[in-house]
Amino acid sequence: MVALSRNVANKHAMEMLLTGDMTSADRAAEIGLVNRSVAAENVTSEVMALARKIASKSVMTLATGKSAFYAQREMSLEAAYAYASQVMVDNMLARDAEEGIDAFIQKRDPIWQDA
């Protein structure tokens, strides 16, 4: 109940909790319980594609984003916006932000410095 109610809309969580019905993978994706549903034979290739995509990003930027995501969830809305704004400013001043913008403009893969 605790994890479910923090990951899907209240009406979906309540229906699942009160009925006890099984939920299909497609329905779980539809209501946001999982990110996506894939055929069993494609699980490994889909997971590896997602892992490669994440691994291609700046480690510093990923760590900053992950930390900020969890921190802001515990704040009031006003405090969360102020905090997120400061994190975005700090992130844009990082070397990897400059590299990411340059790489995009030059239509090339970025070379991350993790700084």
Automatic annotation (TrEMBL):
<dbReference type="InterPro" id="IPR014748">
    <property type="entry name" value="Enoyl-CoA_hydra_C"/>
</dbReference>
<comment type="similarity">
    <text>Belongs to the enoyl-CoA hydratase/isomerase family.</text>
</comment>
<dbReference type="GO" id="GO:0006631">
    <property type="term" value="P:fatty acid metabolic process"/>
</dbReference>
<dbReference type="GO" id="GO:0016836">
    <property type="term" value="F:hydro-lyase activity"/>
</dbReference>
<dbReference type="Pfam" id="PF00378">
    <property type="entry name" value="ECH_1"/>
</dbReference>
<keyword id="KW-0443">Lipid metabolism</keyword>
<keyword id="KW-0276">Fatty acid metabolism</keyword>
<dbReference type="InterPro" id="IPR029045">
    <property type="entry name" value="ClpP/crotonase-like_dom_sf"/>
</dbReference>
<keyword id="KW-0809">Transit peptide</keyword>
<comment type="function">
    <text>May play a role in fatty acid biosynthesis and insulin sensitivity.</text>
</comment>
<dbReference type="InterPro" id="IPR001753">
    <property type="entry name" value="Enoyl-CoA_hydra/iso"/>
</dbReference>
<protein>
    <recommendedName>
        <fullName>Enoyl-CoA hydratase domain-containing protein 3, mitochondrial</fullName>
    </recommendedName>
</protein>
<dbReference type="InterPro" id="IPR052377">
    <property type="entry name" value="Mitochondrial_ECH-domain"/>
</dbReference>
